[in-house]
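To whoever picks this up:

The parser on our side crashed when reading a file containing two proteins. I've narrowed it down to the boundary between the first structure block and the second sequence. Both blocks are reproduced below exactly, byte for byte. First block:
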Amino acid sequence: MKAGLAVADEACRLCGAPSPKRVGAARVLGRHEAVYASCAQCDFLQVSAPGWLDEAYSEALSDLDTGVLVRTQDMICRVRLLGLALGIAPDDPCLDFGGGYGLFVRAARDAGLNFHWHDRRARNLLARGFDGRLGDSYRLVTAFEVFEHLLDARADLDAIFGPRPGAVLAGTALHSGFDPDWYYLFPETGQHIGFFSERTMAFVAERYGYRALCSPQVTLFLPVSEPLEGLRLRWLAKLVRFPYSRTARLSRWWLQRRHPLVSRTWNDHLLLKRRLSASP
């Protein structure tokens, strides 16, 4: 099949538009052919029929994800700053969707934030006892390095946005058209199967009644019903645009001194200890 032809018997997994156009191909996991197709309606770029996902997810965390700790440190600071700007209190319930082994949730709770974990493909190793439930009301839902993994993008986004969280913070690199050399395709792992552009994020925001503040790596969704004055909106947009690692360097010192929180580490230990003692 040549580039530019429709992918037969396929629809966009995000908006449902028929016949996305083939724009390229790559070899995944060294032995499977991945066909990339672009949707004219929402600009979603998807891998057609990825039949290798069980193989790709033999481990939830890819060996190539050497940035998981740096990214977690950055996102803790970013979420702290967003919380201040949006009025999210330390006790407000928050959810990390696609939380992997629970590293971010454990780090967030250690920093004093009330985060819970959810992931269908991973084992909760580091945040046990703090599982969250889809459908509950959350002040903030985070999804870091998650959107590009969604096989049924529409259903998963329905699950995230359906309960009307106060805000959604997504960390995923945005495409600007198919590029076979784009690092974020990660054909070596086979786990990245759907890619969003700024136009795609705007489509998602409009569908669920949110506005999207985008940067190349981070997108913040805020309900259109929430009034935001100009200065506050500019501050949020600037915070979203901070590159990875810079957020942590610029904000850690300021947060610790001006807005310290009480870590949940010891209280979580006591809570889990009481649960174990009470179990039969």
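<<boundary where parser fails>>
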Amino acid sequence: MTADSWRCLAVAFFVSSMGCQSAVAMTDSKSLNGRWLAEDIPRGGVLDRIQTILEINVNGAVSGTGGCNRFTGRASIAGKKITFGSVASTRMACTPAVMDQEGKFFAALDDVRAWRIDATRHKLVLLDGNGNPVIVLARM
């Protein structure tokens, strides 16, 4: 049996309600790729009408919008570990509530150290160094 087969069996054992291919994909950093909509930023939640979007590319490039300003940057991804480097953003001004959400989002990115996929809710959960949720996002 190959290493991938053993990995598939081990993951499938823990996620028994899913097919083996789906379970393995959920532990692979490739499952981070794509556009994600922030649904919860523990430092203050999110405004319903404002979209805070994080796009992650397999090569570590990140971009999106904080709700007002567009941003771009890099993430360092190694297995279940992820850290975000400095982001460059436009400097438009929006309403105070939108700017507050955007500031909390950018600050939360600084705290991120790991990630996991919540298979039950189909969410990407970005975690701090203690394993606590920092940002919860839904795939777009």
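After patching the parser it read the second block fine. Strands lie at 34-40, 53-56, 61-65, 70-78, 81-89, 114-118, 123-127, 133-139. Residues 1-27 have pLDDT under 50 and may be disordered.
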